[in-house]
Design goal:
single chain; Jelly Rolls
């Protein structure tokens, strides 16, 4: 952090201050689901910024609760302003899980999370329960989505309270295999609506 220097010798006599250091993570947009078929963040729509303004974007997924039981929480990307969510992706993932009763502890690679040059949706959490206290939370980082030279890497970490009383820590990473700018992202459940939950989009500057 840069040292802030004042233009007076005495704190009590300060009249002006040097530029105060500001945070590097800037909240761009917050959306709250309420029986929503999807939640979309489209660059230039509704105050969303998803372009060259920031080199890294972070999505915080807070208490995503499905209307229907036993759902997969999913994402997909668009390179045409949200008209089509069909960007080609190659991905992989693994999970750690443990039951409330102490059983089923495991750490494993999971082919269910893999895509190989697919335009389909990417699951980033599965078997999400719809009990009153069941939900999914986590983060998604998207790197340099406006690049027209490189693929677009993304890294996801979520935790699921699943419908069989298991905590499931899900790790997914991959890349959008396109040199077109990625300008939109869509969040859905595999079936039914997103009953509730909040998604916050941040830009990370100077990164």
């Amino acid at each position: 952090m840069a040292l802030v220097k004042y233009n007076n010798n005495s704190i009590s006599a300060i009249t002006t201050a040097g530029q105060m250091a500001s945070g590097s993570m800037i909240l761009i947009k917050e959306q709250t689901a309420s029986s929503s078929a999807s939640v979309e963040f489209v660059d230039g729509s509704g105050g969303v910024v998803l372009d060259s303004t920031y080199p890294i974007y972070k999505f915080e997924l807070i208490n995503m609760h499905p209307a229907s039981d036993d759902q997969n929480f999913r994402i997909n990307f668009s390179a045409d302003g949200g008209s089509n969510y069909n960007v080609t992706k190659t991905t992989t993932g693994f999970i750690a899980e443990h039951g409330e009763n102490g059983s089923g502890a495991s750490l494993s690679y999971n082919t269910f999370l893999d895509l190989a040059q697919s335009t389909g949706v990417q699951s980033i959490g599965y078997n999400v329960g719809n009990g009153n206290d069941e939900c999914l939370s986590g983060t998604l980082h998207l790197f340099n989505p406006s690049s027209t030279t490189f693929v677009k890497h993304f890294i996801v970490k979520t935790n699921v309270y699943d419908n069989s009383d298991v905590t499931r820590n899900v790790f997914v990473a991959g890349y959008c295999n396109t040199t077109s700018a990625v300008d939109s992202i869509k969040f859905t459940m595999s079936s039914g609506n997103i009953d509730s939950g909040t998604i916050k989009l941040y830009g990370i500057k100077d990164s």
